[in-house]
Write a structure and sequence with these properties.
heterodimer; A: 0% helix; globular; B: four-stranded antiparallel beta sheet
Chain lengths: 110, 115
């Protein structure tokens, strides 16, 4: 399979806590992206990190990339109930195509 | 800017019928991608198109599935002689011609149910 893997598959935390999701991919990449999907909806782009970057921040999101280990992590700080969703990483190989992981289901309890 | 428009949102077809899914990319985007998502799973790449060209169809089943992105009008994903296993959510995404670091813009998807 070309797909990467994410862990955990599911994560349940209390509002205010931090949530960390990990992603591994299989090939050399141009960039890695994270998306959120609310139930029954399309995906929303969250953040993109290029292969020559190691860390990137956007609001309460922090993404790291380790190309030597072919892995990335997404940290959501001070989580809110509205963050409840599925989160997917997607690796962009050269040539535009995105390869998605299986996703992490995040549930934030209020 | 209306974003990526997909229609219909829901489509029910009987086995053996044809399904046509439409996608209008975001204004200014010339690249279109189709993905399929089964329940509780991630998105599986199907095909990548630019206007009048199929760039990568490595994820398309060899039979019954076809895609086009004509010079005028939306991109079409066509599934002939549908079977129950085709039931899934089909998502279209678009991106601009050059990488601006903004990722893909996804439509809301078409949920196909084959009965």
């Amino acid at each position: 399979s070309q797909q990467g893997e994410e862990d955990p598959q599911a994560l349940s935390i209390q509002e205010g806590e931090n949530a960390t999701m990990n992603c591994s991919y299989k090939t050399s990449i141009n960039n890695l992206q994270w998306y959120r999907q609310n139930s029954g909806r399309g995906l929303v782009h969250l953040i993109l990190i290029r292969s020559n970057e190691r860390e990137k921040h956007s609001g309460r999101l922090r993404v790291t990339l380790d190309t030597s280990k072919k892995s990335s992590s997404l940290l959501i700080t001070a989580s809110r109930a509205a963050d409840t969703a599925s989160y997917f990483c997607a690796s962009s190989e050269y040539g535009n195509k995105l390869v998605f992981g299986a996703g992490t289901i995040l549930r934030v309890k209020s | 800017n209306a974003g990526v428009m997909q229609n219909p949102r829901h489509l029910v077809r009987r086995r053996g019928q044809e399904a046509r899914l439409r996608c209008s990319p975001m204004k200014g985007h010339s690249h279109v991608y189709w993905y399929r998502q089964l329940p509780e799973e991630g998105l599986k790449f199907m095909v990548y198109l630019q206007k009048e060209n199929i760039i990568d169809e490595s994820g398309m089943p060899k039979e019954r599935f076809s895609a086009e992105f004509p010079k005028e009008g939306p991109s079409i994903l066509r599934i002939q002689q549908v079977v129950r296993g085709d039931s899934a959510a089909y998502f279209c995404a678009s991106s601009p011609p050059t990488d601006r670091g903004s990722g893909y813009t996804f439509g809301s998807g078409t949920r196909l149910t084959v009965v």
